[in-house]
Write a structure and sequence with these properties.
The protein is of the alpha/beta class. 53% of the residues lie in helices and 7% in strands. The chain folds into two domains: 162 residues, P-loop containing nucleotide triphosphate hydrolases (Rossmann fold, 3-Layer(aba) Sandwich), CATH 3.40.50.300; 120 residues, Zinc Finger, Delta Prime, domain 3, CATH 1.20.272.10. The protein contains 15 helices and five strands. A five-stranded parallel beta sheet has the order 2-3-4-1-5, with helices on one face. Helix 4 links the parallel strand 2 and strand 3. The longest helix has 21 residues. The structure holds zinc ion.
Length: 330
């Protein structure tokens, strides 16, 4: 069963909710803002469980009727808003599942809680429909909008919600979680943590992937020879890695880790602080061939590549530009 100990990091957000519950000062509307995989749904689940727990304590008891209903996803006063189309939450969906439903008092709990995952997908009409509810919510209503992009909300929505931003999880906390809770060995936990850049969901996805070794090997094979390869070969190689079901930007992250390692090797001439330790001799060669400015340029290009891919730019073109920068600087 989920409780606050399942939430890794995000202490300030947990503290915020716990003290609001304790003081009885819970707001009617929250925006939980943070990238995909960071733990918004887990947090919303635990918070809504504690709000509805019959003991009234900030920590859910796990034993009362409400807590047990949360466990079996059947708490009738916690409503997870669903949508049919993949990229949009329509005005009808918001009306049906929130605006009209909220008029009915809770079945048997203190609150009626609405959780909207991917709330940035609400189109302007849907947001406007919700706005009226946010302006005059019933006493018992709590609405939680979960989002990876707070900029998609109308200013009128933002001004009526408490916005809580998820910060990256600290590396040590993440390594500890992977080792202790998932039984991942130290080297792998370290690699996955570096890869995830503060996003626990991402670290877990790689750590428990049955393709972990292949992903790492394929990436290393590519990075060892990237400066000698043809454009087509590289693009093909990166596309082939797509079979492992990570996001394409995940491979850009792995490439970034590699070049950060090269920078580290250039500075310290030692494998100590590197992620790809076993590749020390290759990295040493690449480091000697590349200037500090060159590595900087490559890291900048990779960062730009990631931003472009997230904006859905054509993969081949974006990758080609990046490879040119890599080749020019190695
Ligand atoms: Zn309870």
């Amino acid at each position: 069963m989920a409780n606050y100990s399942d939430i890794i990091g995000h202490e300030d957000i947990v503290r915020h909710f716990k003290s609001s519950i304790e003081l009885g000062k819970v707001s009617h509307a929250y925006i939980l803002n943070g990238e995909k995989g960071v733990g918004k749904k887990t947090l919303a689940k635990v918070v809504s469980q504690s709000l509805q727990c019959e003991t009234g304590n900030p920590d859910p008891c796990g034993e009362c009727r409400s807590c047990l209903q949360v466990e079996s996803n059947s708490q009738p006063d916690i409503i997870w808003v669903k949508h049919d189309k993949p990229n949009v939450i329509s005005v009808d969906e918001i009306r049906e599942q929130i605006v009209n439903d909220i008029e009915l008092t809770p079945y048997n709990s203190r609150y009626k809680i609405y959780i909207v995952p991917d709330a940035q997908m609400m189109n302007p009409q849907a947001q406007n429909a919700l706005l009226k509810t946010l302006e005059e919510p019933p006493e018992y209503a709590i609405i939680m909008l979960l989002t990876s992009n707070v900029d998609k909300f109308l200013p009128t929505i933002l001004s009526r919600c408490i916005v809580l931003n998820f910060k990256p999880v600290q590396p040590l906390e993440m390594i500890e979680y992977l080792e202790d809770q998932l039984g991942i060995d130290k080297a792998k936990a370290k690699f996955c943590t570096d890869f995830a850049q503060g996003n626990l969901g991402k670290a877990v996805r790689l750590a428990i992937s049955s393709d972990y070794n292949e992903i790492k090997e394929d990436s290393v094979r590519l990075l060892r020879q990237i400066h000698e390869m043809d454009m087509e070969d590289v693009i093909l190689a990166v596309k082939n890695m797509g079979k492992y079901k990570l996001d394409i930007t995940d491979y850009v992250d792995i490439m970034t880790m590699w070049f950060r390692d090269i920078l580290m090797v250039k500075i310290s001439n030692s494998p100590n602080k590197t992620i790809f330790k076993e590749e020390f001799s290759t990295m040493k060669k690449q480091a000697s061939r590349t200037s500090y400015e060159g590595i900087e340029e490559i890291l900048k290009a990779l960062n730009k590549l990631k931003i472009r891919l997230e904006a859905n730019v054509n993969f081949d073109i974006a990758m080609e530009l990046t490879l040119l920068t890599i080749k020019e600087n190695m």
